[in-house]
Amino acid sequence: MAAVGEPSSESTYWGLPQDEIERRYRLVREAAERDGLDAVIVCGNEYTGFEGAVTYLSGFVIVHRYAYVLLPVDGDPAIVFPTEARYVGEHGTTWIDRQEFVDRPGEWLADAVRGKRVGVYGMDYVMTVRDYAALQGACELVGWDVAFDHARMVKSELELASVRESVRINAEGFWIFLEHFEPGKTAREVLAPCEEYFVAQGCGRWTMDMVLDGPNGSALPEFKIASAKRFDATGCVLPSLEVAGPGGHWVEVSRAICPGEPSDDTKRMLEAYDEYYAAAPAALRAGSTARMAHRAVAQGFLDRGFHLGHVTGHSIGMTMIEFPKIGEHDETELQAGTVLSMHPHAISQDGKACLYMQDTWLVTDAGGVPLAGLPMKIFDGGETR
Whole-structure pTM over 0.90, yes or no? Predict the structure, then answer.
């Protein structure tokens, strides 16, 4: 196994010491026992950003199809694969000794947890229908997404090292995007060097990079896959850069680029972003709540009459989007060591202009700390580092 903080030469996850593995199991088991569960089933599939919960509890990286981790409150864990996925992942990278290859994982899991109360992470979005059907009736299934994410919300020092490495890679990706950006180039041409860099740094398939763009100094609010459309000299482009480095921790870092004059709406949105950035350190202090943080961050946008088309932020880790969400209806208390993705999605009243800039923040006892070090501004494309 690789040394702590160094990528393994034989896998895409960082080698973990035994105490980190035991810490993760302890946190999940304590939460499960608190909720009256006998076991937890964690689901993962190859959908970008949704494989990480399995990696978190097993070290296995899903390359294709899907997998489950079964973690009893008492007893040894197991990792379960469908037989068609036997060779679409490096099974030697998991630290779990019990590896099961079965035609229908749901039937195997049903036999293993029959008559028990089982929390399921991923029951709403990730678990396959056939496996859910096999489990239903065999045991009491409890949706457990929020509780699982809360159990892993506070990151260890080893995890924070992985987060910082991901941030370094992602921030460098923005500079690469900026260096290659110029009107007349296509989105594909500009994003391609970023993807090349991300893969070279060990992100592999752990990237979700899109663009928002539009004419006349404004970007439209829809996310797009980079296409052959050419950037206009009067337009505005928002690269949405989201990656996980070799440690598997997702981050989001990006800024807007406008080579001409930003529209009046865009300028007013930037004013609100400045207010968010000034308010966020205090709002993201340990002891605050997700709702309080949302209100502090959102206030400048709402005061100017803008809609928020996306949650203002969310916890982020080995799954791209984790609970708590930074929103109006979440009273979760923020804790030191929590990592948050913050990205207010400001949209004009007519829906024809938006501003969407991303940062990854660390919650500390002294306040929130932005990790990327990028200035809060709209770039014009001519900047150098």
Answer: yes
